[in-house]
Amino acid sequence: MYNFEFEKPGSVADAVAALGGEDAQALGGGQTLLPTMKQRLASPAKLVSLKGIAEMQGVCTNDAGEICIGGATAHAMVASQAGAYPALADTAAHIGDPAVRNRGTIGGSLANNDPSACYPAAVLASGATVVTNAREIAADEFFDGLFETALEEGEIITEVRFPVPEKANYQKFVQPASRFALVGVFVAKFADGVRVAVTGASEDGVFRWTEAEAALSANFAPEAIDGLVVDGSGMISDLHGSGMYRAHLIGVMTKRAVAAAA
Amino acid sequence: MPKDGGIGASSKRREDVRFLTGAGNYTDDINIHGQAYVHFLRSDMAHGTIASIDTTAATAMPGVVRIFTGSDFEGVGGMPCGWQVTDRFGQPMQEPGHPILAQGKVRHVGEPIAAVVADSLEQARDAAEAIEVSIDGLPAVVDMKAALADGATKVHDDLNDNLCYDWGFVEENKDAVAKAIDEAAHVTTLELVNNRLVANPMEPRVAVGDYARGTDESTLYTTSQNPHVIRLLMGAFVLGIPEHKLRVVAPDVGGGFGTKIFHYQEEAFCTFAAKACNRPVKWTSTRSEAFISDAHGRDHVTKIELALDAENNFTAIRTETHANMGAYLSTFAPSVPTWLHGTLMAGNYKTPLVYVNVKAVFTNTVPVDAYRGAGRPEATFQLERVVDKAARELGVDPIALRRQNFITEFPYATPVAVEYDTGDYHGTMDKLEEIADLSGFAARQAASEARGKLRGLGVNCYIEACGIAPSNLVGQLGARAGLYESATVRVNATGGLVVMTGSHSHGQGHETSFAQVVAEMIGIDESMVEIVHGDTANTPMGMGTYGSRSIAVGGSAMVRATEKIIAKAKKIAAHLLEAAEGDIELKDGAFSVAGTDKSVAWGDVTLAAYVPHNYPLEDIEPGLEETAFYDPANFTYPSGAYACEVEVDPDTGKVSIERFAAADDFGNIINPMIVTGQVHGGLAQGIGQALLENCAYDEEGQLLSASYMDYAMPRADDLPMFEVDHSSQTPCTHNPLGVKGCGEAGAIGSPPAVVNAVVDALQSAGKDVTHIDMPLSPDRVWEAMNG
Amino acid sequence: MTQVTITVNGSAASGDAEGRTLLSSFLRDTLKLTGTHVGCDTSQCGACVVHVDGVAVKSCTMLAVEADGAEVTTIEGMANADGSLNTIQQAFQDHHGLQCGFCTPGMVMSAASLLKENPHPTEAEVREYLEGNICRCTGYHNIVKAILAASGQDVGAIAAE
């Protein structure tokens, strides 16, 4: 990879300052960024590690009953400490592999917004709030297509707040090589309705399947999906499956998530 | 009772201790003082003319030692091809040049254009980015049939066309086969693809070149399965270095699977550059680089026809294959779809007439060569798939159809030029039916159905040929090498032995199993025998390890050398015991005089050989060291029967392997634990081919599956525990150990079992699916089901 | 260049690293601990797994500077104090859980993490935990068996070797 300066600040403020330099980039767990840099596909002049910021680590519950996860919290910690939101803990427990989960962070995953990543589906279906050093961003406003988000240059995800649904579940159908989601569906049932978020499938990245949300809000049962068809035309077509196949899997995974929701 | 040592014992592997403690010595662990690093600038276009290369700016970059391009290698030999196939019209194959660095044209993505030698690897990469290369793109030739069409772009301008050869076997049978097919009561036809694979040993390739100016000696450390072959090819054909001035070392090698047989440009480059720069030069492949520079495997497109008479006896087989050679001929590429494929087309069956036609084709893709099984998986897959399809068309039990047509008398001369010495195909099938619990399948299928899953059972047989030989025959078939093996057995004064073998171990455990053989022959503890391999400086000229040949050929050489040792030791013992040589017996590490209680220990004899005070110096020389070269009389013919049970998820098309059983006949077994492990690994690679792995190019010749992000390697949760049995043993009749070889069987025998099982599952569920091309990925299975 | 100091296998070790120096390179090239292997460049094969502050990480996907001050354990630090193979290593040898040995260091390090988190895993749990460790030789059968055996479970019923 190209060389760069490395900084490991101890506070959000210092990190923001460090990211003010030209071509500076935040480094979470590096589980996507470092492989990208090894291929020389990214060339930041400076990497600012967020791993040394104590206030961005950990899982807690706030007064509103939301699960709050520090932006630099590793997937493994979410898996073990977010038991109050079992579907979220379970999602984290199946991202990548164990060694990746020990390094990769929720903030890093969301800021990257890989179209096949798991966390974006959890955040979007949960209607979570992405908290940065500057503001709070609703999930519906955060994701902005492939690898694009509402984050400004140098803006750091310090925390993600998840309201806890009555029932939820994430079903991932893995791409056999990368083990990323070929299609992943997160279903969350709240008192005021159901949210369904789909990752892996769309050329526009994570999205809400609103027809399914309406059907499931009326009847939270797998058969409520029967007859709903996702249009395959906007879906990713590649070596591992056509857009049609992915569209089909969205229905299958949604049903399974509803059936398994707890 | 299991033995606790010697032949037949599951001795624990001695090499494990170093591998388990981080003390292995792999090529990338070798660093020579003062070494420089090379980075290859590789083509990102599949086909084009190099208009210009400007290295001026790059040469001025920090740390750059020297930048090489194709013009630096004018006058140096190209990469040699080790096998010349003669086509069905009696003409030699078309054989293009294969430069170390591209000259004039690039012909596949990944072809090296320039090489930057620098003080550090990152400096070399930095400088490579500053090289200005201008390539005028040409249409890429990717599809084999399109490559043979009139007017197709030529991969090599100096060849007539993109056809390497059109091979017919046995050409004289062609008309008779056609007649038999025309007159058959039933003909089953199947068109299929044997998918292109990447071998992917976990250790990427590495080469370290070193040169000693004072002695004019070159040394290459490389990740090779056959260091002597590299020394011969590179020294004699590429760089012009005599063998006594060239040492090739293949230390611990992290898996090969065929792809580390071949001589590669990077090896020649590092050896050449070390002398040119007067510095050691090291290259370590990244995995991404391996995908575009390691020879690929398989990639056949085939149509097979099986003719049967009214009683369901096989009467003829005709098969037509297009075999992808890639852009250049890798070392042994021409032999794979021909002699390693056509000679196996009779399989386990007494089909009287067989005709095999193979068109080998140049395309703008990475060269294709041997990968675990090499030709035999391609033969087995098409034959066992078409037999299965025939059984379904005829409404007969697939196992019964196979049994009806089994060869039962040995030796058996096939219509494709080989003679099977031994086998018991009913015996292995009986064993399979037992260990696979085939009688319990119906209940398991019902249980799967209750869970909403489609269960299928696939069974198949295989025959393979190991220990490719004899040399005079393979020479007639086009091999430009001998295929013997060598061993030197050196007995030390105090009785310990060192065996220097031309075989190479890169996971097979020779250091353990070879020692078991010698220890058993002499009757001493295995710990007294050390196995040395992998360094041309201290082993006799050998041909290395591939084609499951090590124990059958290398082991036989070792046995012959040990027999010479024992014969000489008996002479010494006879002298010490004052007895006739013919009365001396060796047992449990002691020589005794038959019918008496007089004996002398092994160690006393070996000591006498080196301290010859009381010694028959007038009859024999001092010392105890012997060498043998063994050239086998025939191939060996392992065989077996495999059964796979799958579950198909009808909602997603995902296939899971629920059970897999393998009953093999490897002849005699040296170390059952190691043999079982070899089968496990082969099964994983075969199942990987059937379900997961696919090396895919797009129309522009860009590799789509260029990393583990898109090339699906089998992982632990893709596979079940395997039932493996090799108690069915018909020893080979023509080698001293009666062994057959076991390294490739699993990869050869398993793909058809998987596909047969999936087809069975789908047909059992009423789907009209007769074939799905590998890999049977979820999307392909779902699309086949949903038409 | 930055000075990086880690405690590796119980002993302090330090060396210079650039920002871009990966922990795997620092271990292999600077500290000459070549037991840690690199088998891919997409963070999937797991040959490079080491323990950093007690948890498994892919050392090819962590910067050396990020490990400054950390406790690192590599395959070289896994044997018993007297040099004999530890329980997991011994189980790998006993059950033929390795062939070419290249993936083995990562397998052993991952196995150690698994058994720390889950002392008595099921076969399915072992297979799932090894998702990030690729072996091309063994078909995993004997690796899974070795890890189950190392956890003290009876593996006699699993297909013979």
What does this 3D model show about the protein?
The complex is a heterotrimer of chains A (262), B (787) and C (161). In chain A, 30% of the residues lie in helices and 22% in strands. Chain A contains 10 helices and 12 strands. In chain A, the strands form 3 sheets. In chain A, strands 4-5-8-6-7 form a 5-stranded antiparallel beta sheet. A 4-stranded antiparallel beta sheet of chain A has the order 9-10-11-12, sandwiched between helices. A 3-stranded parallel beta sheet of chain A has the order 1-3-2, with no helix packed on it. In chain A, helix 3 packs antiparallel against helix 4. Chain B has 787 residues and is an alpha+beta fold. Helices cover 27% and strands 23% of the residues of chain B. In chain B, helix 15 (550-577) crosses helix 16 and helix 17 (672-691) crosses helix 18. Chain C contains 5 helices and 5 strands, in the order E-E-H-E-E-E-H-H-H-H. Chain C has a 5-stranded mixed beta sheet, with helices on both faces. In chain C, helix 2 packs across helix 5. At the B-C interface, helix 1, helix 17 and strand 30 of B face helix 2, helix 3, helix 4 and helix 5 of C.
Q: Can you summarize the main beta sheet of chain B?
A: 7 strands, mixed
Strand order of the largest sheet of chain A: 4-5-8-6-7
Mean pLDDT of chain B: 97
Q: Indicate the low-confidence ranges of chain A by residue numbers.
A: none
Tell me, briefly, the overall form of chain B: globular
In sequence order, what are the helices and strands of chain A, one letter per element? EHEHEEEHHHHHEEHEEEEEHH
Radius of gyration of chain A: 18 Å
| N- and C-termini, Cα separation of chain B | 55 Å
Percent range of helical residues of chain B: 25-40%
With helices defined by DSSP (H or I, 4 residues minimum), what is the helix count of chain B? Answer: 19
Q: Looking across the biggest beta sheet of chain B, what order are the strands in? A: 3-5-1-13-10-11-12
